[in-house]
Amino acid sequence: MQLPINEAKGGLVHSFTCLLVAFAYACLSPAREEEGRSKLEIYKSKQKLYQILSYLGDGRFHLESIMIANPGIPAYRYDPYSKAFSQELYAHERMQQSRKAAIRRAACAHKWGLILGTLGRQGSPAILQHLESSLQAAGRPYVRLLLSEIFPSKLQLFPDVEAWVQVACPRLSIDWGEAFEKPLLTPYEAAVALQQIQWQEIYPMDFYAGQSLGPWTVNHPSHRPQKWVRTKEVKLAKSLLPSAGKEALKSCSCQQEEEEKASSNLGVESGTETGPRTCVEQQQQQQ
């Protein structure tokens, strides 16, 4: 089934040197190109070739995530409900200054708080475990909280916690971080505060990306089940065996197969000797 947006692409493809039609299911997931259904992270894919970002949809929430990851591309939005086409702006410098200030405060914090979001499937236990290991290695005490919704009033109940890291929606820290008394970091920002990674000039919006910067994202390879490990270990063990050992294993397996085959044939022959034909011969001899 061809989407209407791809029908529009057919009429525009001859008017532009580079034309990308992509869609995404979530604001923090990599965009997908409709043709071929191949994953495509816009902010890593030949960013300099694209000069205009046009968003189809109502509201700015999802568009802002794309704008944060593509600060050098002018953004436009078409609202299909109001039929309005407008240029959209984002205060990149102000956002980055705010997040850097929160990271600097958290870097000096002694006691931390880790929040695992329980609303929907936002929270990731794997990221929580990674954060716990990082804080333990840094010698920082911490507390754990499970919250469906994160409000400043709830976090104020823990006055001894000097910095928070929320494993829920990164946009909560980016959009509303200044509303909290203590720094409220994303897992990426916590990695910067703990000196695990340098601050990125282009703020990474790769929380659900398959190829992300580090294990503080949901789909990082370190969080995926390694189904191929056992097969790889078996192949490695066989490669380490000496040639004599390999021949011995091969001969043993062949010998076992021959013995099983011989025993099965023996069972068939013995069955015929004591079977119906023997009974008929005995009756003929008696007559």
Automatic annotation (TrEMBL):
Alphabetized Pfam families for the sequence: Diphthamide_syn
Gene3D superfamilies (alphabetical): Diphthamide synthesis DPH1/DPH2 domain 2, Diphthamide synthesis DPH1/DPH2 domain 3
UniProt region (Disordered), positions on chain: 252-287
Keyword annotations from UniProtKB, A to Z: Signal
Domain of life (superkingdom): Eukaryota
UniProt keyword Transmembrane helix, yes or no: no
Coiled coil, from the record: none
Comp. bias intervals (Polar residues): 263-287
Keyword Signal in annotation: yes
Family (UniProt): Belongs to the DPH1/DPH2 family. DPH1 subfamily.
Name the record gives this protein: 2-(3-amino-3-carboxypropyl)histidine synthase subunit 1
Species of origin: Crotalus adamanteus (Eastern diamondback rattlesnake)
